[in-house]
Design goal:
Strand order of the largest sheet: 7-3-4-5-6-8
Shape: flat
Number of helices: 13
Radius of gyration: 24 Å
Order of helices and strands: HHHHHHEHHEHHEEEHEHHEE
Number of strands: 8
Helix content: 40-55%
Distance between the termini: 27 Å
């Protein structure tokens, strides 16, 4: 059996497990188009940048046509669907870096993500040590008799998803091609969370949860699906909505009672509505939340599970067509705000109906 103090502490662990990599990777992903850091050009780039001091030959052998700069231009980038901050970042062209710099940046990102999480875990989670073999716990999913009504499982999926997407952009900033960056982002995000679960199984205080492991994989799978399908990414967001109530402290990652996990469908991702002057700003929300499942609330009231349905305002699309209208390319501030709105739902920008699940 789990003790109450362990359950309370466990609420914060999905957030803490990815806090370091997300804090470290987010500015790198945002910097991808701004060229932060020192980009080390390769020999070809140096040669291209140097002034041309050679003389034009008097004649060329038959069949050897002179090449123009247009002949050397790279192929046009593959068009992507608009309306998604990560879709725009995914196809941004970072400053060209050397292979050595790419390896260094990639290793630094992985060290910060994995090493930082393990160091934090040894200091905060596993200080009681290990022993007793590998232990598991059957925590259940979304039932009324579960510890948090399933909100903790959605939290695992959300953090695996967010971590994979942000780290993918960070690895692309490091100089990796998009396919390699996606693989690295998935392995680092999901692998870190899965590693924490496995270590839990050998610790004296915690247990391995197969439900948490499945949730981690589900979040990573959704990240992979949207990264590989820009049109779908422009249509769908997975967001966390948080609004503290009942005198609770602001704790968006541990306060399950005031969390809502939303699947958002954006009209701007539908070709028929993309250019509509009104509909392109609208979204449909489908969500789930669990209230009063924590130990303190159970003593005062009955835990309840909730399904939400509503509409919201696409703040990224609104800002893109007002504040940022006319920009030749997204500014750093625009990319930061759009990425935030892609993962977080502002309560004031949505109207939802609340249905208690019996």
């Amino acid at each position: 059996m789990w003790i109450d103090t362990a359950w309370k502490a466990r609420r914060l662990r999905p957030a803490a497990a990815l806090a370091l990599p997300l804090i470290f990777a987010s500015p790198l992903a945002m910097a991808q188009q701004d060229g932060w850091g020192v980009a080390v050009p390769n020999d070809a780039a140096v040669a291209a940048a140097a002034p041309d001091t050679t003389e034009t030959p008097a004649a060329l052998p038959a069949g050897d046509e002179p090449r123009t700069p247009a002949d050397e231009a790279p192929a046009a980038a593959e068009p992507v669907a608009a309306g998604s901050a990560t879709a725009e970042l995914a196809h941004a062209q970072p400053a060209e870096v050397s292979e050595r710099t790419t390896r260094f940046r990639t290793a630094a990102l992985m060290a910060a993500s994995i090493g930082g999480t393990l160091a934090y875990g040894w200091a905060k989670w596993w200080q009681d040590g290990f022993g007793g073999g590998f232990k598991t716990a059957n925590e259940g999913w979304f039932g009324q008799d579960t510890r948090y009504g399933g909100a903790d499982k959605l939290g695992h999926a959300m953090f695996a998803y967010t971590g994979a997407r942000v780290l993918t952009q960070a690895f692309e900033w490091a100089g990796n091609d998009p396919t390699t960056a996606l693989k690295l982002g998935l392995w680092t995000s999901v692998g870190t969370l899965m590693g924490v679960e496995l270590i839990d199984g050998f610790s004296r205080k915690w247990r391995f949860s197969k439900e948490d492991a499945v949730a981690n994989l589900a979040g990573g799978a959704l990240a992979y699906l949207l990264e590989r399908n820009p049109e779908l990414d422009a249509l769908i967001d997975l967001r966390l909505q948080y609004s503290p109530s009942g005198g609770r402290q602001f704790d968006p990652f541990g306060d399950y009672s005031n969390q809502r996990y939303l699947l958002v469908l954006k009209a701007s991702g539908v070709p028929a509505f993309k250019q509509h002057p009104l509909f392109k700003y609208l979204e449909i929300n489908l969500g789930y939340g669990a209230r009063n499942f924590d130990t303190d609330s159970r003593a005062l009231t009955t835990p309840t599970r909730h399904a939400y349905f509503g509409i919201s305002l696409n703040l990224s699309e609104l800002l893109r067509n007002t504040v940022y209208k006319g920009n030749a390319s997204p500014t750093r501030t625009q990319r930061v705000t759009e990425t935030f709105f892609e993962f977080m739902q502002i309560p004031a920008a949505t109207m939802q109906s609340d249905h208690v699940i019996r």
